Amino acid sequence: MTPLDLSLAVLALLLTPGPTNTLILLAGAERGLRGALRLIPAELAGYFLTVLPLALLGAAALEGLPALRIAVTLAAALWVAVLAVRLWRLPGPDSAGRAVSARALVTTTALNPKALIFGLVLLPSPERLGGNLALFAALVALAAVFWAAVGAGLGGAGPGGAGRPRALLVLRRLASVFLAAMSLLLALRGVGA
Question: Closest by alpha carbon to 23, among 132, 102, 92, 76?
Fold first, then answer.
């Protein structure tokens, strides 16, 4: 795979809506673009927690343990369901609490099914692994900027992150419903695997 082909494949997956992107979008709506960008290291940490071992150990390790793939999928479904419930139950946007923490973003990203695709399919290449990982990190940051900017625009967040309270509440509820649907799809995939 050429660097251009790899970039296009990785970027296509990174820009696809999912649990991590939903949290980055919500962070942009709550905190503004600048505040959400501070979460990029957490997103990178989450991806690398899953991608690095998979890229180094390869698909052979998971082929011998099909139950592990099912367990990871079901764990991801459970975590995304927990996030959906937390987002729904959050106090009103006037409160000081934020929906997206760095810890939640690391966990969500580490359990994101996209990380399996990156680690098992797109990034492994013994002769180019370092370059592939550097390119991947840059593309993760680029996608995070995109989703954070969209969130900042939707939430009407200014430089300090002060947005329209009603818009933030609606966005949190929509994110919660989206994550609940993602959780259900993951659970069905895990059980059907």
Answer: 102
What is the C-alpha separation between 114 and 162, in angstroms, rounded? 32
**Per-residue model confidence as pLDDT tens digits over 30-58:** 899 999 999 999 999 999 999 998 888 86
Interatomic CA distance for residues 80 and 185, integer angstroms: 11
- Kindly report the pTM of this predicted structure: 0.76
Beta strands in the chain (DSSP E): none
Say how far apart CA 23 and CA 85 lie, in whole Å.
13
The owner of tokens 């399919």 is 121
Beta carbons within 8 Å of 147's beta carbon, 6+ residues apart = 21, 24, 25, 28
Nearest alpha carbon to residue 183 among 36, 33, 89, 76: 76
Residues in the chain: 193
Measure the CA–CA gap between 129 and 113, rounded to whole angstroms: 20
- Phi first, then psi, for residue 43 (nearest 5°) are -65, -45
